[in-house]
Design a protein that fits this description.
The complex is a heterodimer of chains A (388) and B (136). Chain A is mainly beta. Helices cover 11% and strands 53% of the residues of chain A. Chain A is built from 3 helices and 23 strands. In chain A, the strands form 3 sheets. Chain A has a 16-stranded antiparallel β-barrel. A 3-stranded antiparallel β-sheet of chain A has the order 10-12-11, with no helix packed on it. In chain A, β4 and β5 form a beta hairpin. The chains are: A mainly beta (388), B mainly alpha (136). At the A-B interface, α1, β1, β2, α2 and β8 of A face α1, α2, α3 and α4 of B.
């Protein structure tokens, strides 16, 4: 046998085999390339809002929220979400979050930057238009973009700071979900002449909300209660930092429950407390999905050399059931009276909403809903959302 | 070592080098199916695996790990499942699966909870559907 035949017999087969398998072998190396891990995701919506009564006009609106994901390595992710919305006078832009995540641990995540606060569940996980099953937000939450919701108890909360998350198991069935964060914290909102606020992530002052509803207020100093701005405090207005946490238990896809809370001083002098508490739960049974969330804010303020506390509770419950490509949804939201001791500083607001979604694709719902405002004007909403 | 052994050894080494990227451990994919059904549908509809490439799913799963607060091993198992089911053929040894039917990614009926016989049968049917060749 010649030398060339021996070489061919002994080495050619392994060589060809190795070359054939090389593309698969190098794929993992390609996936490690930093430049290959940039991705734009996000969601958008087009909305149509028809007031059923009153002088308000019907109107179209739109929102666009691209999410930029840049994976520096399998252990590091930078992610940011911009929100573009249409409001009176032009286009609004908000940086909802911009955060660096460290993913190198099995059970622990580290996050730094501007991130969505884990206060309840809706604010952090359910508010994107293609995920939210209604075209509007429950009265608990407000959001300036999307054109169909107003700020009520809290905005969609995001702030600048650091966060640690722990995911663990409780036996074979239950999971544990814990988050702890330190952030700049809210500040006192300066509202304009119209009594409104100039930022998407602010709570309207209690007196303004009361005046808008035209209802009787028994607390004499309601107009003295300041509004609160979240996520706008990029140079902190005080030395105090916001501390918050959320603890949750999860059982497969059928049940999850969370308790969360935060504390912060919101005035420039580090004197006025703001405390938030939230309880959220979700159950899936018999094809139905039930969601609910309740929250309370305790806001200290100064009036006549005293420091009373405004208590603002709210909750919502929602149920839906998927029937083929359609999904009927019913939601009840209740912003309860905000009180200072026993005096009413802001009257309640109740809303019953029902609607139906048509899922064109798993991330493309066409939503129709009717909101019955028991203490205000009803409206009809149409939203075409798109998750991409 | 005879000639055959000297030939087969480099083949085995080459396969071992390439195998991790060419195939997913079946246990990981099986865990991924279970974890995917338990976690992803809690907030939103199940997105079709075919929507994304292997690389896209890797980045998205990192994002979703933070949003849903998942364990690293759980995230990797879900990723293995999605990459093995997206039909791109980038990382699977099996023949490239056909387009996943849209119905396959609907939220599973609540009555078919993971672990039950009904759920297992549904999952097997779904996997079978994904690997059926498309009718020309």
């Amino acid at each position: 046998m010649s030398i060339s035949r021996i070489v061919a017999k002994r080495f050619a087969l392994p060589l060809v085999t190795a070359l054939l398998l090389l593309p698969a072998g190098t794929l993992s190396a390609q996936q490690q390339s930093p430049l290959s891990r940039f991705l734009v995701s996000g969601y958008a919506s087009a909305n149509y809002n028809v007031p059923a009564e009153g002088d308000a006009r019907n109107n179209f609106s739109a929102s666009f929220s691209p999410i930029f994901l840049f994976e520096l390595s399998p252990d590091f992710l930078f992610e940011a979400e911009l929100e573009f919305g249409l409001e009176e006078g032009g286009t609004t832009t908000t940086l909802e979050y911009a955060q660096v995540d460290y993913l190198g641990f099995e059970n622990v995540l580290l996050v730094a930057g501007k991130f969505l606060l884990p206060f309840g569940v809706f604010s952090e996980r359910l508010h994107p238009t293609w995920i939210n099953k209604m075209p509007s937000m429950p009265l608990l939450y407000g959001h300036a973009h999307g054109g169909v919701a107003e700020g009520v108890l809290t905005p969609i909360l995001s702030d600048v700071g650091v966060m640690a998350r722990y995911a663990g198991s409780l036996g074979d069935v239950w999971g544990l979900d814990f988050s702890f964060y330190v952030a700049q914290g809210p500040s006192q909102a300066e509202h304009d002449e119209d009594g409104g606020d100039d930022h998407a992530h602010s709570i309207a002052p209690a007196s303004v909300a009361a005046a808008a509803n035209g209802q009787d207020i028994t607390y004499p100093y309601a107009s003295e209660i300041p509004g609160i701005a979240f996520g706008t405090n990029f140079s902190d207005n005080n030395d105090n930092k916001m501390l918050g946490a959320r603890l949750g238990v999860v059982k497969g896809p059928d049940f999850e429950a969370y308790v969360s809370g935060f504390h912060s001083m919101y005035d420039d002098e580090d004197y006025l407390d703001l405390v938030g508490a939230n309880v959220a739960a979700e159950v899936r049974k018999g094809g139905f999905e039930f969601r609910g969330e309740g929250a309370m804010l305790w806001q200290e303020f100064e009036v006549a050399n005293e420091f009373p506390t405004l208590r603002s509770p709210a909750y919502y419950v929602q149920t839906s059931r998927r029937i083929g490509d359609f999904e009927p949804v019913v939601r009840w939201s209740h912003l309860l009276e905000a009180k200072v001791e026993d005096e009413v500083a802001r009257d309640h607001r109740r809303q019953f909403a029902f609607g139906i979604n048509y899922w064109m694709r798993p991330s493309v719902p066409l939503k129709l809903a009717y909101e019955i405002e028991l203490d205000g004007a009803d409206r009809f909403l149409v939203q075409w959302a798109y998750g991409f | 070592m005879n000639t055959w052994n000297r030939s087969i050894f480099p083949i085995a080494v080459a396969m071992l080098i390439a195998l991790p990227a060419a195939a997913f451990p079946q246990q990981s994919v099986a865990d991924g199916v279970r974890l995917w059904s338990q976690n992803c549908g809690r907030c939103h509809n199940f997105r079709p695996a075919e929507e994304r490439s292997d690389q896209d799913w890797a980045t998205i799963l990192s994002h979703m790990r933070v949003r849903a607060n998942l364990k690293r091993s759980d995230t990797q198992a879900i990723l293995a499942f999605l990459q093995s089911s997206n039909g791109t053929g980038e990382s699977t040894t099996a023949a490239a699966p056909a387009r996943a039917p849209a119905d396959a990614f609907r939220v599973p009926a609540a009555s078919s909870a993971p672990g039950t016989l009904e759920w297992s049968v549904a999952m097997i049917i779904r996997r079978a559907l994904w690997t059926l060749p498309e009718v020309p």
